[in-house]
């Protein structure tokens, strides 16, 4: 009274399983007469029995993972009941697994923090993959992408299950590589095998394993013995490759530096600047100090550098500079060699301390030429350009030969006068202007601006449009420009659907003599406004009629009834369309995809459903405010296309026989018949 069958999951519908009559020793011809029936606790009927032959076939494919989830054995129990006499047979169907699932990990990415001080051999547990299949079709092994610092080992728990571990095989160094990206792969034992991957990100945490390093082991500096307090002597700098507190460096004098030197000088703990802290009352010409740099780690590491400071004696008289003549302003087109000023330089000190050298900065278009004893001439040595530099502060530096030398400076202001040697200049070769369509007349579009580095009339700029045509029209009929400030105005409204962009040139001219000019190209881009409603392309209607779609009476769920196709002449979001059901004769029967416009059934058709349905679809754009159009679709449930379509008019009243269109047709037919009769009569008369 019991039979056991084995069947692989996902076996296709109609596949032969066995012959229940033969396997149970029942006459197949009596099955129908004995009112056989199969009883099961499953929600689906997975098997059928042929009443004539007793053949047992697959009625519905079986998904073992969905049916039995994580059970190791998947069995379906059925009971076969026969009457006359009453008999009960038990049938068991063992569902065999196939490799139809790939291993997968719970998360899309895993992060592991590893301190860089760990020694090789450190272990880190990796995530297990899950495979819904059973036996050899489940996860069998793991692999790790090649990496010189890590490898993979498998471990076994107390219950016999395996899990992967990440093992450190080479010491890490955060300063060389702060992160390692690995890929863990899980493979099952199916044929063919399937696999799943997950990224493993290893973040290397810093430890204080680097001491600060100075840029130089020895720093040298020289200062005058009368340097005031706060004078910068030198700036030392050390770097630490660690990060966070381990890499924060603080500076101080070493304990081996004498106390009197630590009183004469101070060092900033963060910047490393060594400055004078008091009077330099020393007899030694060379001072030696040790500077320590220490990081802020838990066990601070340090290094030292030597600082040598030379104290130089001073000279008590400086040179005196006297300007005897000066010509200013000078024109910018002055030729090289033009004399600007005459000056004398004197120093009251005798000997080497009284000998003076005089100079000006090398980056100026001037030079000093020695004249008679103690006199110098300041002359031009290059071309001048007032637009680049309108005047020069010329610093004359006189230095004596004392030890240390004393330097005196005197500054001359030389002004440069203008000539018209520069045309107007626009900041760009082109400008892009964006304007919305349907703009008001006289709307401000943009203001072009050109600069002229000249001054006065040479630098006063006026603007005008260069003659050109746009879409067959003169530019002056579209735009106007302010002569004084370059403001551009629209003289008519633009239409995005007719003209999307155009370009023109604006000329800028100065008032110099002769006048100089320049031009700029302005690109005008007309942006769209939502001034066009969506147009329904399909389904099409004529004279206000309703488009009719025929749907099989027993159509399945998600059956495609029709697709609403629409277009919008606007652009961007003004042309982005969405579809909505405004009305449906049966709201439970149809649904509309808001983006594709596909009208589908929400459930399978029933024999009790009405044969005629009507839906109203609204197509709306995303403009501000949005515009919309509607279309009415009649839906007829029929297995074949009828010869005459039913009336979908909501009013239910018959259309009038003599409407305006019918009257026009009757009159036209009568006129044609009359003309044809006259023509026949004319032919008869001519023949006679």
Looking at this protein, list some descriptive labels.
688 residues, mainly beta, Immunoglobulin-like, 6 domains, four-stranded mixed sheet, 51 strands, flat
Describe this structure in words.
This protein is mainly beta. It has six domains: 92 residues, Immunoglobulin-like, CATH 2.60.40; 96 residues, Sandwich (Immunoglobulin-like); 100 residues, Immunoglobulin-like; 75 residues, Immunoglobulin-like, CATH 2.60.40.60; 103 residues, Sandwich (Immunoglobulin-like); 103 residues, Sandwich (Immunoglobulin-like). The chain contains four helices and 51 strands. Strands 1-7-6-3 form a four-stranded mixed β-sheet. The protein has a four-stranded mixed β-sheet with strand order 8-14-13-10, with no helix packed on it. About 1% of the residues have low confidence. This is PCDC1 protein. One of its GO terms (biological process) is homophilic cell adhesion via plasma membrane adhesion molecules. Potential calcium-dependent cell-adhesion protein. May be involved in the establishment and maintenance of specific neuronal connections in the brain.
Strand content: 35-45%
The gyration radius over C-alpha positions equals 49 Å
Shape: flat
Biggest sheet details: 4 strands, mixed
CATH superfamily of the largest domain: Cadherins
| End-to-end distance | 107 Å
What is the SS-derived class? Answer: mainly beta
Remind me, CATH topology of the largest domain? Immunoglobulin-like
Which CATH C-level class of the largest domain is it? Mainly Beta
Q: Tell me the strand order in the biggest sheet.
A: 1-7-6-3
- Flag low-confidence runs: 651-659
Give the helix level as a range of percent. under 10%
Q: Could you give the count of β-strands?
A: 51
Helix count equals 4
Give the tally of structural domains. Answer: 6
CATH architecture of the largest domain: Sandwich
Q: Mean pLDDT score, rounded?
A: 84
Keywords: Calcium, Cell adhesion, Cell membrane, Glycoprotein, Membrane, Repeat, Signal, Transmembrane, Transmembrane helix
Function: Potential calcium-dependent cell-adhesion protein. May be involved in the establishment and maintenance of specific neuronal connections in the brain.
InterPro entries: Cadherin-like_dom (IPR002126), Cadherin-like_sf (IPR015919), Cadherin_CS (IPR020894), Cadherin_N (IPR013164), Protocadherin/Cadherin-CA (IPR050174)
Membrane topology: Single-pass type I membrane protein
């Amino acid at each position: 009274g019991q039979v056991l069958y084995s069947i692989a999951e996902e076996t296709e519908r109609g596949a032969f399983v066995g012959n229940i009559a033969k396997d149970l020793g029942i006459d197949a011809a009596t099955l129908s007469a004995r009112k056989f029936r199969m009883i099961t606790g499953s929600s689906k009927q997975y098997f059928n029995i042929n009443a004539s032959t007793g053949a047992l076939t697959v009625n519905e494919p079986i998904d073992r993972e969905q049916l039995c989830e994580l059970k190791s054995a998947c069995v379906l129990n059925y009971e076969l009941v026969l009457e006359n006499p009453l008999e009960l047979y038990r049938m068991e169907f063992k569902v065999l697994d196939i490799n139809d699932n790939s291993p997968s990990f719970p998360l899309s990415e895993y992060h592991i923090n590893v301190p860089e001080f760990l020694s090789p051999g450190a272990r880190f547990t990796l995530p297990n993959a899950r495979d819904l299949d059973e036996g050899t079709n489940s996860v069998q092994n793991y692999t790790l992408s090649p990496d010189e610092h890590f490898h993979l080992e498998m471990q076994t728990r107390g219950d016999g299950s395996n899990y992967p571990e990440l093992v450190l095989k080479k010491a890490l160094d955060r300063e060389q590589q702060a992160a390692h990206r690995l890929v863990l792969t899980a493979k099952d034992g199916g044929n063919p095998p399937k696999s799943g991957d997950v990224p493993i990100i290893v973040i290397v945490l810093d430890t204080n394993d680097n001491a600060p390093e100075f840029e130089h082991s020895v720093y040298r500096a020289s200062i005058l013995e009368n340097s005031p307090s706060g004078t910068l002597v030198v700036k030392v700098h050390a770097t630490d490759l660690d990060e966070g507190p381990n890499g924060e460096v603080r500076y101080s004098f070493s304990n081996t530096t004498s106390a009197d030197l630590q009183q004469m000088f101070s060092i900033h703990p963060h910047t490393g600047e060594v400055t004078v802290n008091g009077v330099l009352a020393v007899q030694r010409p060379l001072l030696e100090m040790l500077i320590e740099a220490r990081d802020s780690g838990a066990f601070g590491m340090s290094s030292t550098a030597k600082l040598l400071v030379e104290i130089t004696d001073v000279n008590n008289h400086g040179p005196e500079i006297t300007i005897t003549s000066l010509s200013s302003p000078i024109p910018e087109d002055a030729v090289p060699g033009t004399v600007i000023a005459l000056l004398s330089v004197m120093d009251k000190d005798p000997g080497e301390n009284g000998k003076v050298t005089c100079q000006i900065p090398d980056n100026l278009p001037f030079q000093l030429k020695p004249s008679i004893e103690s006199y110098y001439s300041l002359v031009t040595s290059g071309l001048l350009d007032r637009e680049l530099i309108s005047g020069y502060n010329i610093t004359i530096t006189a230095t004596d030969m004392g030890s240390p030398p004393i330097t005196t400076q005197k500054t001359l202001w030389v002004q440069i006068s203008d000539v018209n040697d520069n045309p107007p200049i626009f900041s760009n070769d082109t400008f892009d202007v964006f304007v919305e369509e349907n703009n008001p007349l006289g709307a401000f579009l943009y203001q072009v601006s050109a600069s002229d580095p000249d001054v006065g009339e040479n630098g006063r700029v006026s603007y005008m449009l260069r003659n050109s045509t746009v879409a067959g029209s003169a530019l002056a009929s579209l735009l106007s420009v302010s002569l004084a400030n370059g403001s551009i105005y629209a003289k008519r409204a633009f239409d995005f659907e007719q003209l999307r962009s155009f370009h023109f040139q604006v000329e800028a001219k100065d008032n110099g003599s002769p006048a100089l000019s320049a031009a700029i190209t302005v690109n005008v881009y007309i942006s769209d406004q939502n001034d066009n409603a969506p147009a329904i392309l399909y389904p099409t209607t004529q004279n206000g009629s309703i488009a009719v779609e025929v749907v099989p009476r027993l159509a399945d769920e998600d059956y495609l009834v029709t697709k609403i196709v629409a277009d919008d002449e606007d652009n961007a979001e003004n042309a982005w369309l969405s579809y909505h059901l405004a009305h449906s004769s049966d709201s439970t029967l149809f649904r509309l995809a808001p983006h594709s416009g596909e009208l589908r059934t929400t459930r399978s058709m029933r024999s009790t459903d009405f044969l005629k349905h009507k839906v109203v679809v609204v197509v709306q754009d995303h403009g501000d405010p949005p515009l919309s159009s509607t279309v009415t679709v009649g839906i007829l449930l029929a297995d074949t296309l009828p010869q005459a379509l039913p009336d979908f008019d909501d009013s239910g009243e018959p259309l009038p026989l003599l409407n305006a269109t019918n009257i026009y047709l009757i009159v036209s037919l009568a006129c044609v018949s009359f003309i044809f009769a006259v023509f026949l009569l004319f032919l008869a008369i001519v023949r006679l």
